[in-house]
TrEMBL record:
Species of the source: Knoellia koreensis
Compartments, as annotated in UniProt: Cytoplasm
One GO MF term attached to the UniProt entry: pyridoxal phosphate binding
Protein name, per record: Glutamate-1-semialdehyde 2,1-aminomutase
DNA-binding as UniProt keyword: no
Lineage: Bacteria, Bacillati, Actinomycetota, Actinomycetes, Micrococcales
Stored InterPro entries: 4pyrrol_synth_GluAld_NH2Trfase (IPR004639), Aminotrans_3 (IPR005814), PyrdxlP-dep_Trfase (IPR015424), PyrdxlP-dep_Trfase_major (IPR015421), PyrdxlP-dep_Trfase_small (IPR015422)
């Protein structure tokens, strides 16, 4: 297809305005093209697999709002549900039926989840799950894994993935050292390190939190036996296991990563708590945490762990989430798999042909491309990649009308609306982008 010019005057004009009133011109750091350079595109509309920017250029979207848009942009059934809900009112500050229906849908899909509490972001979900785990166990230490991102919760920002990885920050300024000291960071996929830390401090550890299958350092699925070890070791020491499925939930399968790895993966039993977001909000601010009923009973108003939200269970957001999940049928997951198969094959062939070292890793339909040789199993191996080659590849794809995540440390996301025409547009752009990566 015809290449777009690399400059984007209308987006640049908006960025200039934004820079005057917003730090870095963006409301979430990875949206700024800091890691890849250039002008972030200001989008004005989305339809199915396409986004259109302020310069009127159309892109095949492989970010999908960082996960939520699993059915594609402006899906007619979700739009209808949102319009109808908005007609009835925007926010009641009382319970309403859609909240119940959305909770029922989640509980029905993810077998170990008995109860959920709705919140408005993945960050809120993980923050609340951690407070709950601490309240339930009466302990304070939390174990997390380097390269996993769980939102911008103070105690979870140490060696975090996503934007923290993109900008190569060890952690965040502004987190009190006392709070950072409550978090133990371990290498991902390292069972001996986990066993060692529990042998030393097991009686003080409230919970292990892990991305069910990490996607925030690129896609790094658990090695066989790792998930089972997490369950076994936490159970032995009376700590809770929190599986963060904000990214994988309802995307890797109808029951998320749990639906793929399931009982076999967890071996000694399911995680105690889960966190969800992204897909379950259908592009609106809705997220959740949930799990064992006896643990959830510790939450106010039934228990002593406080947690609340003015907009929690918002009627418009829950309508969007419910309609999205109701349309996430088996056919949708089949199509997501087909699109990912086609794209990963195409990317692999193009990079091979151009002689660019790479490894492509997958978790269901989530995948990412590491510009390096050899499998990535943890944050150290994820970081050892050719970021300039990625940046060259990214810009070539963008100029050819393909919108990729602007970071080498993020998953690519597809939707069920990615039809053959959209896939073919991506495939057609790959050889030129691969040559650009080779020349970087
Ligand atoms: N957990 C995971 C695994 C995530 O991927 C994210 C966001 N990318 C979050 C938590 C935080 O969610 P939010 O951005 O909605 O706060």
């Amino acid at each position: 297809m015809t290449a777009y010019p690399s400059d984007a005057p209308a987006s640049q004009a908006l960025l200039d305005r934004a820079l005057a009133v917003t730090p870095g011109g963006v409301n979430s750091p990875v949206r700024a093209f800091r890691a890849v350079g250039g002008t972030p595109r200001f989008m004005v509309s989305g339809q199915g697999p396409y986004l259109t920017d302020a310069d009127g250029r159309e892109y095949v979207d492989l970010v999908c709002s960082w996960g939520p848009m699993i059915l594609g942009h402006s899906h007619p059934a979700v739009l209808e549900a949102v319009q109808q809900a908005a007609t009835r009112g925007f926010s009641f500050g009382t319970p309403s039926e859609n909240e119940v229906a959305l909770a029922e849908e989640i509980v029905a899909r993810v077998e170990p989840v008995e109860q959920v509490r709705l919140v408005s972001s993945g960050t809120e979900a993980t923050m609340s799950a951690i407070r709950l785990a601490r309240g339930f166990t009466g302990r304070s230490l939390i174990v997390k894994f380097a390269g996993c991102y769980h939102g911008h919760v103070d105690s979870l920002l140490a060696q975090a993935g996503s934007g923290v990885a993109t900008f190569a920050l060890p952690d965040s300024a502004g987190v009190p050292k006392e709070m950072a000291a409550e978090t133990i960071v371990l290498p991902y996929n390292d069972i001996p390190a986990l066993e060692e830390v529990f042998a030393e401090r097991g009686a003080d550890i409230a919970a292990v939190i892990t991305e069910a299958s990490p996607g925030n350092m690129g896609v790094v699925p658990p090695l066989p036996g790792f998930t089972a070890a997490l369950r076994r070791v936490t159970a032995e020491h009376g700590a809770l296991l929190i599986s963060d499925e904000v990214m994988t939930g309802f995307r890797c399968s109808r029951a998320g990563w749990f639906g793929l790895e399931g009982d076999a993966g967890y071996a000694a039993g399911a995680p105690d708590l889960f966190t969800f977001g992204k897909v379950m909000g259908g592009g609106f601010p809705a997220a959740a945490f949930g799990g064992r009923a006896d643990v959830m009973a510790m939450l106010a108003p039934t228990g002593p762990v406080y947690q609340a939200g003015t907009l929690s269970g918002n009627p418009v957001a829950t309508a969007a989430g419910l309609a999205t999940l109701q349309h996430c049928t088996d056919d949708v997951y089949t199509r997501l798999g087909e699109v990912s198969d086609a794209l990963t094959t195409g990317v692999g062939e193009a990079l091979d042909a151009a002689g660019v070292p790479h490894v492509i890793q997958r978790a269901g339909s989530m995948f990412s491309v590491f510009f390096r040789d050899g499998a990535v199993t943890d944050y150290d191996t994820a970081r050892a990649q050719d970021v300039p080659a990625f940046a060259a590849f990214f810009h070539s794809m963008l100029d050819q009308g393909v919108h990729l995540p602007p970071s080498a440390f993020e998953s690519w996301f597809v939707s069920a609306s990615h039809d053959d025409a959209a896939v073919d547009r991506v495939l057609a752009a790959l050889p030129t982008a691969a040559s650009a990566a080779a020349a970087a």
